[in-house]
Write a structure and sequence with these properties.
Blueprint: H1 3-32, H2 41-66, E1 86-91, E2 97-103, E3 114-116, H3 120-125, E4 133-138, E5 141-151
Parallel strand pairs: 2-3
Antiparallel strand pairs: 1-2, 1-5, 4-5
Helix pairs in contact: 1-2
């Protein structure tokens, strides 16, 4: 994952541990005080939410423990597309330009221009250089893109 992705996960982990976990423990305690737990919807909901929060905490801790963090700024720019770079590509069909950063699965968000390294576009781009033309298979057919720029941001 990128260093920005690692920071994002660490912030989420801290929020879950410092804010969400204590909040849900308090909600469970309040629901217990209401009596019969079998018919207590607040208790059932709080326990379900606790399970989700604890599962997410474990998931983030596992990802952080087993991830390789790559700061693309530390890698010399060669014009080659690698994990972490920001690449501008030109769609030959409609002459539109698009900018993507190639990131890990947890960081991917197409709305802000971050695509997973495992996406079809990223897989086609990895290893190519500025000026190369790549063909990407999409549900609508083959699309050709030219790599216009590669930046280590």
């Amino acid at each position: 994952m990128t260093s920005a992705g690692e920071s994002m996960l660490r912030l989420e982990l801290e929020r879950l541990k410092a804010q969400e976990r204590p909040r849900i423990v308090q909600a469970i305690a309040e629901a217990r005080e209401q009596g019969d737990l079998r018919e207590n919807a607040e208790y059932q909901y709080a326990k379900e939410e606790q399970g989700f929060i604890e599962g997410r905490i474990l998931d983030i801790e596992r990802k952080l423990a087993h991830s390789n963090v790559i700061d693309v700024k530390d890698i010399p720019a060669t014009g080659k597309v690698i994990f972490g770079v920001t690449v501008k590509i030109l769609n030959y069909e409609d002459d539109s330009e698009v900018v993507y950063q190639i990131v890990g699965d947890d960081e991917a968000d197409i709305k802000i221009g971050k695509i997973s390294v495992y996406s079809p576009i990223a897989r086609a781009l990895i290893g190519k250089q500025i000026g190369d033309v790549v063909v990407v298979s999409t549900p609508k057919g083959q699309v050709e893109y030219e790599i216009c720029s590669v930046e280590h941001l």
